[in-house]
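User: Can you write out an input/output pair for a complex, sequences first and structure second?

Assistant: Here is one pair. Inputs:
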Amino acid sequence: MKKINVIIGLVLAILLVGCDKDYLNRFPEDQPNSATYFTTAEQLNLAVNGAYSTLSYQQDGFPYQMQLEGTSDVVWQRPTTDAQAIGLGQHTSNTTMIRTIWTQSYIGIGRCNMLLDNMSKAKAVTPAAQYSRIEGEAKFLRAYYYANLISLYGDVPLVVKSIAPEESFLPRTSKVEVLNFIFTELDSAAAKLPLSYTGTDIGRATKTSALALKARIALYNSKWDIAAAASKSVMDLGYHSLYPNYRNLFMYAGENSRESIFAFDYKLTIRTTATPQNNQARNSSGFSGLVPTRALGDSYECTDGMTIDKSPLYSTADPFKNRDPRMRQTLLGDRDTWFGAGGITFNMTFHPDSTTCTRYSPTFAKIPNLEVTNAFSSYSGYIMKKYLDPLDIAVPNQSELAFMLIRYAEVLLTYAEAKIELNQIDASVLDAINLVRARGYGVAATQTTLYPSIKTTNQTELRSIVRRERKIELAGEGLRLFDIRRWNIAEKVMNGILFGKVMNKTIYYTLPMPTLDANSSPDYASFNSLVNVAGNFKIMDNPRVFKPHNYLWPIPQAEIDVNKNPGFKQNTGY
Amino acid sequence: MKAQANYTREFNWLDVSILAGAEQTDNVNQSFSGSRELTLFPDLVQLNAYPALNQNVTGDASSWALRSYYGRLNLVASNKYLLEVNSRYDGSSRFSADYKRFGFFPSVSAGWIMSKEKFMSDIKWLSLLKLRASWGTLGNQNVGDFPYISSIVLGSGVFNGNIASVSAQNTVANKKISWESTEVKNIGFNAGILNNKLNVEFDYYIKNTNDILLTLPIPLIVGMSPGVQNAGRVENKGWDLQLNYNDQIGKDFKFGITGVFSDVKNKVLDLKGTGPYISGFQITKEGEEIGALFGLQAAGLFQTQEQITTSATQYGTVKPGDIKYVDQNKDGIINASDRVIIGSRIPRNTYSANLFFDYKGFDVTLFFQGVGKYNGLQIQDAAWAFFNAGSVRDIHLGRWSPTKTAEENANATYPRFFISQTNNQQTSSYWMDNASYIKLKTVSIGYSLSQSVLRKTPFSLFKVYLSGQNVFSWDKVPGYDPEAPLGNPFNYPQVSSFVTGIQISLK
C-alpha cells in the first residue's frame, strides 16, 4: 500500500507540475518586444522621437552645447567642471564630458540605424508622406550626430546599421569619408522633409534644418561652394527671417520664431534646465557659473562700425557706451537695469565700492549688492544674458526655455563667409551681413543711416568683418569652439593668463587699451604690468594652456580599452 | 506549488531515506501609484480634493518563474557513516527556451563521526569528532527578469512645448545565456572538546563559479548598454574556522567566547579570451582578482623642478609638490598604458569575536569584527582640499608647500594644494589607503533581577539594558569609514547608536 501511495504521489506531482508548457515563458508587461516592433506607423513615430532625445543632455545642469562655450575664449566656467578643465588644457581621455558626448552621439546614431534598418516592415501600413518624413528625420539626426563627432574628435568609426557587440570592433573612418556620408544623408533628408509643420509636429526637423546643417558642416571643413549653395537654398526658400529683437530672441517671447531652424525644447516633468540658476547674477538667484570673458566684451564694435582700439567713440570709463547694441543685449554689466530675485529690478554694478546697489521696483531703495559682497559672483564682471528670462526667476533651476541648435542668423553668416572665401563677393554677401548687423540695432537692413552697414568689397577686410560678426552674434551658443579651431587661432586665444573684472577701484575707470587683430582677438600686452600686481584683477585661469594636439579631443579611454581592433588608435598627444 | 514524496526505512544497521519532488514558483510584481499635490483643504485626504494640475500616475508589472525537479538519497550506517546524494533539475523563465533553459545540479556529501568508533572511546577529552567532505553544484539566475528579451523602453520627450511619447531599445539583448553554476569542494571537521566546552569547526573549500553572468563593457559605438553574458570562471579558495568556548566558574560566573576566522583568495580563471575589463577604478582580468584596483603607481612627490624635467612627461603642467608616477613601460610618457594593479577590494583575513559574561544577573556582551587586509580609495570631495568649493581638513596640514623646509616637504602627506590639476587627480596608489580595521560593532550591558527577587512581583522578567551599535573603529584611514564604497561616495556613513531600555514580562 505504502509503495503504491508513493508512486501515485510522485506521478501526480510530476503531472501537476509538468503541464502548462508556457509557465516558464515570461515577458515584460510595460515594454514591447523588439522582435515585433517597427510594424505600425505609430511605432515608427515613437522610434524616431526617441532618436531626438540624445540631441542634448544636461552637463552640470544645462545644455552641453552651452557648456562647450566654456572650452573656448568667449566664455569661462568657474566651478571645477570638465569644461573648465578643457579650457585649461588639462583634459584627458578619461574626462567625463568627452566620454558622454561620444556615448550620447553613438546612442543617437544607434537609434537612427535601428529605425532605418527596420522601418520597411511598416511601409505598407504607413501613409507615404509620414514614412518619408520619418526617414528624413532619422537621416538628418544621424548626420547631426556624425557632424558633431567629426568636429570634436576627427576620424570616428562610421556605423551605418545596427551592430552586435561582436561586430563592433571597427576602425576609425577618415573624417573626409564621414563628411561625404553626412552630405549624402543631408541631401536625402532635405528631399524628404517638409518645409514646416503644424500642430504637435512643430519642433521636428525640417527641410531647412537639413540644408542649414549641411551648410554648417561644409563651412567647418572649408568646402566653401557646398556651404554657399546649401545656405543659399535656405535663404531662397524664403521661409526663415531674422527675429526683430535680438534680446527677445533668447527669451520665451522669441521661442519658435521664424529665425529658429532647429531647437531643443524643455517642459516641466519631462526635462528642464537649470540655465538660469547656473548663469544668473547673484542678485538674481544665480551662481554666475558660466560667464562671458573680457575678450568677448572687447570684441563688440562701436556705433561707428570700428573696433574699440580704433574708434574715438570708445571710453574705458564707460565701456558699454556707444557700442553695438548687441553688447548690452548679450552681456549684463555695469550700469544695466536687471531683474532680480523676488521680481525686483535693480541697478547692476561690479564696482568694488558698491556694496549696496539701487533697487528700482517695487520701491526705490538701497539693497545689498551680492555682485560685490559674494566671493563667487561673476569673475569677469559680465553675465551672459542669453536664455535668461524674468519668467524663470521664481524657479531658476527648472527652465522650460527652448535652446536653439541652428538659427537663421548663422545661415546668413555662413553664406557670407563661404562666398568671401571663394572670392565671389557681390551685393548678396553684403546684404547677408548687413541683415544681421541691422537686426542688432533693431532696424531694417535698408535703413543704412541707422546702423554701421558694410560697404567694402575687399576680401581681407570682409573676412575680418564676418569673423567678428560670427564671434559676437553667436556668442554663448556652442559654436565658438569650432570657429577657433578651424581658423587656427586657438593657440593664440587659449594660451595665457585669463583675467576678469577689476578689483582695484583706482584703476577701475582708467584701463589701458587692448589691440585687436584681424580676427578680433584682443591682445592684452598693454595690461601686463597691471595684471601682475596682485589684487588689481580677478584672476580666472592662470594659465590656460592649448597645445597643438588639442585641436582635437581624445577618443574616450573607455572606447580604447574595449575596442579590440588593432587599427583603432588614440589621437596623437593623448 | 510543490509536490513531494518521501520514503524512509530502517534496517539493522542502515537507515535509508529517499525524497523526490517537483516544485514551481511564480513571482508577480505589480505596482500602481497615483498622486496629486497642493490641496487647499488639508483635512480632506482623497485624490479628488486635490487639483489635477501636475497629477502623476504610474503603473508597472513584471514576473518570473522557476520550475524544478529534485531528489535526495540519505544513508546512515551504524550511526557513524553518513552519505547524502542530491540532485536538482531547475528551469527558469529568465533563460530562453531556444537555448539552455534548464540546468542540472548534483551534489554528494559524506561524513564520518570518528568519535563514535571503538578506538576513540578512550580519548575522554574528545566528546565529538566528525570528519566531512562534500562536492556539490548549484545554479544562480540572479540577473534581472528579462535578460534575453530585447525590449523597447518607452518614455517622453518634448517638441515645441508638447509632450511626445518616445521609444528606444537601450540594452543589447542576449539569447545565449544560461545558468551560472557554482561548484564547491569542501572538507572539514567538527570537534567537541572537554565535554563540549570547547567546540571547533573548520572548513577548507574550493569554490569555482562557472559561466558567471556579468555585464561586461562593450564598445560605446554599439549605442546601447551591454546585456549580460555567461562570461567566465572565478575561483575562490578559502578556509573558515570557528572556535567556541563556554564555561562557568562557580555557580554565578558564566562566560563564553566565540571566534570566527576566515580568509579567501579570489582569482579569475577564465574570461573566455575576452577582457581585461576596465571599469572606473577596477579591472577584471584573467589570473587576477575580480575588480582589483587599477591605476597609476605613485612614487611620492616631486621635490624639485629638476626632478620634473628628468622624469617622464606627465599630465598638464607639473610643478614641485605634485605627484610623481612610475613610468611602467619606460616610454617617457605617463598615460593610461602605465596603469597597473595597485590594490584589492576583496577583504582578506577577516575575523570576528563575540564575548559574553554573566555574573549574578549582570551580563555583558561584546562583538568585534575586523578585516586584516583591504584597500580603500577615495577621491574628490572625500579626499581633496577645496574640491568643488569645499573646505580643507586637518589631514591637509601635511601638504607639500614652498613655504616649508625641504625636510618637511620630503615627508609631506599631501601634494601641493590644487583646485583643478589633472596630474594629481589621476587614479593612483597615492589616493589608496590601507583599509584594514577592527571595529567594536556591538556592546550590550544589562542587569536582570533574579528570580528570587521577582517571585513576589507580577514580573517574570525585569531587565535594564544599555546597548550600542558601531561603537568604535580602530583603523588607519584618514577620516572616512574603512567600509565605505569606492571613489567618492555621496551617501550617509554608518551611524553609531546607543539604546537604553527596560525589558519586562508579566506572569
